[in-house]
Specification:
- The protein has helices spanning about 5-15, 15-30, 50-70; strands spanning about 5, 35-40, 45-50.
- The protein has about 70 residues and is α+β, with helices and mostly antiparallel strands.
- The protein has one domain: Winged helix-like DNA-binding domain superfamily/Winged helix DNA-binding domain (Arc Repressor Mutant, subunit A, Orthogonal Bundle), CATH 1.10.10.10.
- The protein has a three-stranded antiparallel beta sheet.
- The longest helix is centred in the C-terminal third of the chain and has 19 residues, at about 50-70.
- The protein is elongated, with a radius of gyration of 14 Å.
């Protein structure tokens, strides 16, 4: 998945609007995700995609967790 909209992320992650919005804002400020808005008003959508630094941070996170999961 290269890009996901807010509604898709909300369902896949099972999060409320407020929680997801705060988390995505934090990731955007850290330049881990790119935000792209289309349309406007009620018909508008917000799309998110990982940046290069976001992909690198996620890979590092998985690498750190792997020994814990494999236990």
């Amino acid at each position: 998945m290269n890009e996901a909209d807010f509604a898709c992320l909300r369902v896949r992650l099972d999060l409320g609007d407020s929680t997801l919005s705060k988390q995505m804002s934090t990731l955007a400020r850290a330049v881990f995700v790119r935000v792209h808005k289309t349309g406007g008003g009620r018909s508008g959508k917000t799309w998110y995609s990982l940046t290069k630094s976001g992909k690198r941070a996620f890979a590092d996170y998985r690498k750190t967790l792997r020994p814990i999961v494999d236990g």
